[in-house]
Amino acid sequence: MRIIEILKVDGKGRVTIPRTVRDALNIIEGGYVIMIADLNKNEILLTPTSGSGGKLLEIRILFNDERGKLAEISEALAEMNVDQITTNCRTMRKGEVAECTIVVEASNEMDESEIERKISGIKGVKEVLVVPIQGH
Prior knowledge:
Elements: H1 19-25, E1 32-38, E2 43-49, E3 55-64, H2 69-79, E4 83-93, E5 97-106, H3 112-120, E6 125-132
Antiparallel strand pairs: 1-2, 3-5, 3-6, 4-5
């Protein structure tokens, strides 16, 4: 289901998320949303996060464009109890190279290098970069 609303920006650049949307997505006062501004697409994506106290990480992955490779990456993250919040993937060269940017929530004890090692160990993964998201 989609809800489409037109929102007015106030003098400080703020918008109010309508109650119907907040209720539907369980966005509560004091909770967190992740904002991703894609300047190439001229769009903003807001995604609620659990705000469970874990750390937010952006994982950039370059890998062979093969059937099932994204599922394999997702399974590896799930095995580490890392929750995927948003995933944005594209094929750079069909049948050759794809890239994904995945925003995840991981426990505070999780070391970023552990995620890099696990994902890098998947056959066909060419490059992995894990970057903490500031401001959480």
